[in-house]
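Lab manual, section 2.4: Encoding a predicted structure.

Procedure: take the sequence of the chain (304 residues), apply the prediction step described in section 2.3, and record the output as structure tokens. A sample record is shown.
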Amino acid sequence: MLTKKTTAYLILTLLLAITIAWALTSGASSKGLADLNILFNIRLPRVISALLGGAALAVSGAFFQAALRNPIAEPALLGISSAANLFALIGGLLLPALFSAKIIAAILGGCLAFLTLASLQKNLDPYRLILVGVALNAVFSALGNLLNPNQTAFSLATSTWTTTLFLAVITLLGLAVALVISPFANYLKVSDRQLQTLGLSPKQLRISLLSLATLLAASSTACIGILAFIGIIIPHHARFLLGHDYRQLVPFCALGGAELLLLTDTIGRLVIAPNEISANIILAIIGGPFLIYILLGRKTDAHS
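Recorded output:
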């Protein structure tokens, strides 16, 4: 007899396979698989980018919640993504011929926002820290709009093999590290004093998790733009289905994030074809009410 965890993984894997097939065979063009150029050069890099970006953002959100002991911590809400986007834009302006410059600049921007939040964490409760993150997000977003009023620099719609390969290298390495260090996220369920009695450093544990989470979120933003709420929706559903063991949560979040972003992007491509609705808009429609639900009624803790 299948366990609840096994059933959840099987259903999610099946849904992911169906969504991948749907995304590859559907689009504004009615030629489907007959036009290999459309399939290989347009749809395939976009599908792969959505899978990688969704996985990165979901795992990033889970680690932010674990490290900050905050059930609604998420890279977009905390200003990490908007800072990465701003610095990627700057990197693109300074060195337009080098996409790697955008990636490096985005990671530096994400680290700046992360360090700002880290310096304030001791003086603020979890929800005030989120408010600071929202304020940072507003500032970085406004500056990004000044540099790029049309907001067309980075998105799934502009995915190419170049952006996809950069995202693949960083994300796959990051996810591999996330699987290795996922057991350490479980230690943060107990108090700092208890960790110290076990000979563990709470500060080092948090920095490790937050650094990896920032890397995943920033690199994803540099390649496919700012995408909010994946880091909240998927980890919360994962905890509901699997419990609070991060050894189970991290791989499930990776699969769930990949499924959610690919599904929303595919729906956005098809619902008003040949025009598109951005995946970020659909995620906001879903994620906004979900966040309100968490804040108003759900007694969820990211570590218990």
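Check your result against the sample. The CA atoms of residues 6 and 242 lie 9 Å apart.
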